[in-house]
Structure formats: structure tokens, C-alpha cells
Amino acid sequence: MKTIAPEQLPDPWLVDSTYLLKELSRIRELTLGIPLTLETSLPQNSVIDALWRLEEQLRYLLRLHVAGQNAFAARSVDTTTQPLPERPASLRFGAR
């Protein structure tokens, strides 16, 4: 089995969600490729279930992230169309 050197690993800040979802799917497919026997069926099903739950949790978190970004974008659009409130006289430039 070939090992991966740490410098070959992707930067965790640059790994995108599509890559992670594809990788989870690939690992699940590899697990399904293991020949099924009485000894391997229970551990194999446990791994498949854990991968499926992890993928679903990641999808849910990504949906929450997108919803938060959309809400932030909507708020920023709303605030740019409304005029700014008038400053109190004591805070105006040159006021004494």
C-alpha cells in the first residue's frame, strides 16, 4: 500500500465540499467492493452506515452554511438601499 507524505496532502483550508463528498462516496464504494462473508458483513455494514451518516451531516452543514451566506447577502443588500440615519449634532464634523 502506498503512503502519502504530509506535504502531498491537500491544504485543509482549500479542500472544497465537493471534494469531501466525492471522497466519502468513493470510500463507501470501496467498502462495498469488499467480498461479503459472515465475518465481514457486520463491520462492513457499520462502516457503510457511518459513511452515509457523515455524508448526510456534511450535506446538512453545507446547506446551513449556504443559507447563512444567503441571509447575510440579503441583509447587506437591504442596508445598502436604505439611507443612513442622520448623525446627532454632537457627532458632526466641526460641531462644538
Describe the structure.
- The protein has 96 residues and is an all-alpha fold.
- It is 62% helix and 0% strand.
- It has helices at residues 17-32, 38-81.
- Helix 1 packs antiparallel against helix 2.
- 0% of the residues are buried.
- The model has no long low-confidence stretch (mean pLDDT 79).
Structure characteristics:
96 residues, mainly alpha, elongated
Summary?
The chain is mostly helical. It is 62% helix and 0% strand.
Alpha-carbon distance between the two ends: 77 Å
SS summary, helix count: 2
- Computed Rg: 25 Å
What composes the largest sheet?
Answer: none
**Residue ranges: pLDDT <50 for 5 or more in a row?**
none
Write the layout of secondary structure elements.
Layout: H1 17-32, H2 38-81
